[in-house]
Amino acid sequence: MTLLTRWEPFREFSTMQDRMNRMNRLFRESYSPEAPEEALTTTNFAPPVDIYEDEHTITLKLDVPGVEEKDIDVRIQDNTLTVHGERKIEKEEKEENYRRVERQYGTFTRSFTLPSSVDTGQVNAHYDNGVLKISLAKKAEAKPKQIKVNLGSEKTLEAQAQRKAA
């Protein structure tokens, strides 16, 4: 019986890219100035972030579990918000006993360009249960203004305004 398979010309490129990335990582780790055991478990990583906005604030939530508050640095410079931190590997554990290491350790840096509507003087950062929440207040002129809609024709509105003026 003949088996038909769908030909996907770019599947081989994806496989080749994965192999190249793995070789590159192993090459860098083998020439790491750190101990070989630590080189296998420490890397730079980018914690995931959610950003949402309402009429008064822009809020960022970064997932950084296992990072101590003292290892987090939040700065605003030149209209750029930068969050830098480090997740340290627990030294009590023996690396040779690990079967698998999937958690990422090492330093991270995330930078965000802020819109001109943000008041950089009113920024709050709060860390709780592995989530860093940064609230950026908007400037008063950037907040939406509600405009009252009047009913009736313009002539009627003009006449009402004239009566009030008289």
What secondary-structure arrangement, pairings included, does this model have?
Blueprint: H1 11-30, H2 36-39, E1 49-53, E2 57-63, E3 72-77, E4 80-87, E5 106-113, E6 118-128, E7 131-138, H3 154-165
Antiparallel strand pairs: 1-2, 2-7, 3-4, 4-5, 6-7
Throw out a few tags for this protein.
single chain; elongated; 4-stranded antiparallel sheet; 3-stranded antiparallel sheet; 166 residues; 2 domains; Immunoglobulin-like; 7 strands; alpha+beta
Structural commentary:
The protein is built from three helices and seven strands; from the N terminus they run ααβββββββα. With 166 residues, the chain is of the alpha+beta class. The chain has two domains: 10-40; 44-142, Immunoglobulin-like. The chain is elongated and about 90 Å long. The chain starts with 10 loop residues before the first helix and ends with a helix.
Share of β-strand residues: 25-35%
Which sequence of SSEs, written as H and E, runs from N to C? HHEEEEEEEH
Estimate percent helicity: 10-25%
Alpha-carbon distance between the two ends: 98 Å
List the domain count as a whole number: 2
How many individual helices? 3
**Broad shape:** elongated
Query: If you compute it from the alpha carbons, what radius of gyration comes out, rounded to the nearest whole angstrom?
Result: 27 Å
Structural class: alpha+beta
The CATH architecture classification of the largest domain is: Sandwich
List how many beta strands DSSP finds. Answer: 7
CATH class of the largest domain: Mainly Beta
Mean pLDDT: 78
Largest sheet, order of strands side by side?
A: 1-2-7-6
Largest sheet descriptor: 4 strands, antiparallel
What is the fold named in CATH at topology level of the largest domain? Answer: Immunoglobulin-like
pLDDT < 50 stretches: 35-41
